[in-house]
Amino acid sequence: MLDRVAVHQTRLRTPGLGLDAKGVALGAKGLVLLPSIDRLVAFLALYTRQNSLADFLRTLVVEVVRSKLGAREVTVTFAGESSDRMDRVAEVARLAGGYTFTGTSRHFVQYRDAAAPFGYDIGQITPSDSALALYHNAFSQTYDSERKIEIRSLLLRLEPHLDPSTAREPGPRWICAEAGLGAALIHYFVRSSVEAEVGVAEWPPESSFDDGPVVRYIFRVPAIPDRMVPLLASTPGLGVYLPIAPGAAVEVGYRHPVNLRACPVFSEAGLVLFRGAGRDVLELTKLPALGDVGAFARVELRREVAASRVPEAQARPAAVSIALRLMPSTEPWRAVTASWIKPEEMPLLRQVAYALGPETLRKARIALTKEGAYLRQPSGIEGIPVGEFFREIRAGLYIPAGYDAVPNVAPDVLYRALGSPSGQIIFINRDGRTVGVPGDAFVSLETALLEAQDWAPLTGLSSGLTAALATELPEIFLGGTGIRPLRDVPALAELDKPAAIEKAQ
Amino acid sequence: MAEDLGERCEELAHEVLAPLVLGGPMHPVRPFGGRLGLSLGIQREIVDLDLRSRLDVARVRRARLLAPVDALPPLDESDWAVLAAFNDLVQLTNQHLVTVFTRRSYARLLGNVRWLCERIPAPRDVLGVISRHATFCRALELVRTDSSVKWWTGSARFRGETPPTRLTAWKDLRRVEIDATRVPLTEMTLGLKGIASDDFNDALALWLTRSPLTDLAEATRKAPAFSWSASTLSLIATTPGRSLAFRALSRHPADRVAAALSRANAQIPSSLDEARELAIGFTSEVAAGRAQLVEQGKGSEGEPKSRASRG
Lengths: 505, 311
Prior knowledge:
The structure holds two protein chains of two kinds.
Chain A: E1 2-4, E2 18-19, E3 25-26, E4 29-34, H1 37-50, E5 61-67, E6 72-79, H2 83-96, E7 99-103, E8 107-110, E9 120-122, E10 132-135, E11 140-149, H3 151-157, E12 161-162, E13 173-178, H4 179-191, E14 197-203, E15 214-221, H5 229-234, E16 238-245, E17 248-251, E18 254-255, E19 271-274, E20 282-284, E21 291-292, E22 325-328, E23 336-341, H6 346-353, H7 358-363, E24 365-369, E25 372-376, E26 388-394, E27 397-400, E28 403-406, H8 411-417, E29 424-428, E30 434-438, E31 443-444, H9 445-449, H10 463-469, E32 474-476, H11 492-495, H12 499-504
Parallel strand pairs in A: 8-10, 17-19, 27-29
Antiparallel strand pairs in A: 1-9, 2-3, 4-6, 4-7, 5-6, 5-11, 7-8, 10-11, 12-18, 13-15, 13-16, 14-15, 14-21, 16-17, 19-20, 22-28, 23-25, 23-26, 24-25, 24-31, 26-27, 29-30
Chain B: H1 2-22, E1 24-26, H2 33-39, H3 49-63, H4 77-91, H5 105-119, H6 126-136, E2 143-151, E3 154-159, H7 165-168, H8 171-174, E4 177-184, H9 197-208, H10 212-217, H11 230-236, H12 239-249, H13 254-266, H14 273-301, H15 305-310
Antiparallel strand pairs in B: 2-3, 2-4
């Protein structure tokens, strides 16, 4: 039924079909025919796993089409652009149970496959008034368009699947609290010193029995402490959402079937909250104004202000300063980006260095001190399993991994207590000793590994090598030097005279 | 004049530099003197590309015995000045340079060599140290073959010259005996009138200070005796320089190295505390390092052969 396009074939019968640079039959558009909307969702889910729809979102049209026999199928039409894109789409469509076509206006012919590497050409065009004519090796069919499907609407109607692993993903969170819980949650965050921003959003009343709009509090929390997660996840009226894409978030514990990051259909100025368990999506066309939770803290006024008096005796209160200690912590290790290698462990580091990859060698930085070597790598130091690990609690301040500093002061406060030394990287050891390493002392590990001072000196075994390298001895042969051989050699008294310089030159 | 100087420099490269680095017969060229020696290397490079390439390879090969370098900078004007000074130094041993009536010319040339060496700057960085050492490290390996030819009716002595074939022909018939002696650089002025061996060795010691790593590497020489100079102290004041010096000294027996360094340390004036501390500290480190090498050597003796061959 269809003719295979041959090598160097230039004439094609399909209207609007041409040959690209590789000789593949390609039209201006690509079309994927899918049997149902389920298959459409599967196609979108599979395609967005590794590719982004942003490439052809502007030209993407999804329609439900109807054949003359009444069968309904789904077509996805997009700009063909290149055979590379068509190949990617065809692979995914094949997996999703669809067929791929290419064409320009109404007539679409089957795209190339393994049997026809350069594509297909229509043997004979079927005359028809239909909006769409698809020609496949196994069939040819005409369709009329029934209705369009908007991708955004489709994504909003898709229900998220259960996925408990999303609860462990780090990063910021959105929290949506019902009106009665908002204030309590604000004060909870304020008391616990959790950084958060809060705003109030309104939704239209869910039914005619509601008096006014539905008010909810929207929180944006950069990092929820782990101890709070079970409470927030299990309290009715609270919903925790994981940002998936700009303008979209999915409830923690659920995952949207389509990779929303690859579908830029949601406005960044608004917010769409996908809820699980069959509940509707919460959509905000525009984010409300967000403010720091601290501004909403309860304020209490004193009756009077106690004025201070100059005491008669200069009695100073007893100091309440206490020594800093390090206590073992049960928290999982995070931000382990430095290590201390003692002098006796340096040979081990040298041995390990041979096995390190180029990326690790390039990114790791080392400072050599009398007390050993200090290694730092912002992406994690576990790749160099030598020495004692340190975690960074603040830029330029490290404590041993698996330990917490007590009293549990803020890292900035601790850094100020240490004098805020500029240009110094502070390491607090397990024994409480604090060491400062100048930041300039850190050099790239790959440079340090090849520096001359760390080379072992050559032993006498190299004498054979020296002999092998030595060529014949330089031997002087004296001979005559001609007439006046010392005519360029001035007298000693002439050497320091400036005039002699020009003459000599 | 400029062309003449260019030709002379090219001749210097072929006749002196190439044998010094690559080995082979060296024919020193006409002396340059102090002023010309300082200026002849300005924007100078070896025209013969093949020679330049062979010299670069040989220099890098020499340098890699001490440090992991892949390339060395070409000779700069200071290096050319050192080379000119070396040429003049070698010419001081040439009996054909002066006649009976011009023996005072040796003093003039010697003065020029000293003047030139005092004005050649020391290497500015460790790479310069390695580069200069790679060029001049074989200076003290220079030898001259003196031949004594005896035949049935007479004898003759030749200093650094090949005996003419007419004297060595028909060896059996004329009962020719040739006795060749290899004379090192430090003894080449022995027997020359007009220049004292001590003066020559002093000039040679001054010349060696222009390549501090070479000076240190040959610290165990008999003459001229090694003594600390500003350039050698500057070298061991830096950590990489210290490592290089240690590696260079590791090639010599430990007791001779210790004796040479101790003798040089004793010569440092007591007023120069910092220099003395530096020198004594380096001597201690060398001794400790050599002891550690010996221990490592003993430890590796018992290791399986396969590991040694793998290393």
